[in-house]
Write a structure and sequence with these properties.
Blueprint (H helix, E strand, L loop, with lengths): L1 H4 L4 H22 L1 H18 L26 H17 L1 H7 L3 H11 L1 H12 L7 H24 L2 H25 L1 H4 L12 H21 L4 H18 L2 H22 L2 H24 L2 H7 L9 H12 L41 H34 L7 H12 L11 H16 L16
Length: 463
Amino acid sequence: MKQIILSPLIAPLILILAAIYLILVFNAVGKDRKLALNWEKFFLCLFLFCISGATGIGVSPYSKLNPNVLYLVGTTAPTIISQLGYYGINLLLLSSVLKDSLKDMVQVFTTIITKDPFISAFLLIVSLSSFWSDTPSFTNKAAMVYLFTSIFVIYIGKRYTWEELFVMWRWINCCVMVMSLYYGFFKPSIGRSELGWTGVLGHKNQFSFFMAQTAFLWILYAINSPKDRGKSIIIILGSLLGLQNGGSGASKILVVVSLALLSYLGFLKKLKVQWAFVAVILLMIGSVCLTILISENLEFIVVDTLHKDMSITGRMDFWPQVIDNINKRPFLGFGVYSFWMPWRGADDPGRRIIVAKTQFIPPHSHNGFLDMALELGWVGLILFICSFISNIAKGVIYLSKNKLPESGLPLFLLNYILMTNFTETGLFGITSIWAWYLILTTRLCIDSSSNPINQKDKLPKVT
């Protein structure tokens, strides 16, 4: 089939037809404002879908649309050209929308810099990290892809309200859930591993966390939208089915804590802002302690109740080694994506970290915060933590002034990031975890601004 398509007779015809369709679509989108806005929303949702979880969708063609292929070693030229062509064509088709929606982007960046200088300084370190990396050309390429993706994500946060983002978020997660169940049941060679289901996300723990997130989003929607409760219950059950087959005990605790947070939100709205902030901090600390205790110490709960093996690849055996490596370059780290580099063979800095008992060489720290410190040093991690705490404060204020369920989303997401990145990774990188954090940051900065950016061209509500 491939040889037929690339033959001298067929290939030109395909290109001509593609050009004709492109011209027709460009003309239609340029004339129909509603079509253009819906095309934009679909394009942005597909982007967020492709980078779902900590690994992104692992099946083609979605894996090839993940921006990380632009810097990964071994990516072929046709894949890079195809992705650049895909994004370039869509930006061209959306030019009629972008010429208006991009006008206030400078104001958006100014608002982020003034409202959250910590995340701004964090991104500055990312952009400069190639100067102290052992692989400067690779780091520079990866950092540029990361920064451009971050700008893309900031645009999403600027473009849509929390109400619109809630719709996008839960339906993107629903699509991942449906596709994962399909691969789990009908294509087990892709959707399962020996330890549990991985769905289309590549790892059972990340898949389980994602299913826990999906269940919570639809529970939140079901509570506040009685008319769609039947549909929501079906999606919730599908998510819980995926979570159960994923076999992650921590994800079950995540569901329990998220539901506790759901009932906690009403209590927080009644408190003064400063007390609500303290209450949220205490809840997050308790959530992390509970996660660590269950993952490391409570053998009865983990083995008998959650049916989970106590071994978690010896995290406590290699975390001290990770910290030792951070302290070798304590200020600014090794550079973006410049520590775990198995393609470098003997020169891979990560090869020095080995679990003595099993000779296991971990592919990452199994801790998103430690991975961030490895790449950007303690300075980068501290800047992120300051941004995180700042967002908790903004999230509490937003909760106190706005109606549920949308007003509770920032605090849920922050708690989710905290809990999932203490025993797994995915916080730093082209992942939906980072994307939604940056969307949250952008949205809270705009919402807390005394002169909020006016949003034009509102989309029709979708339920």
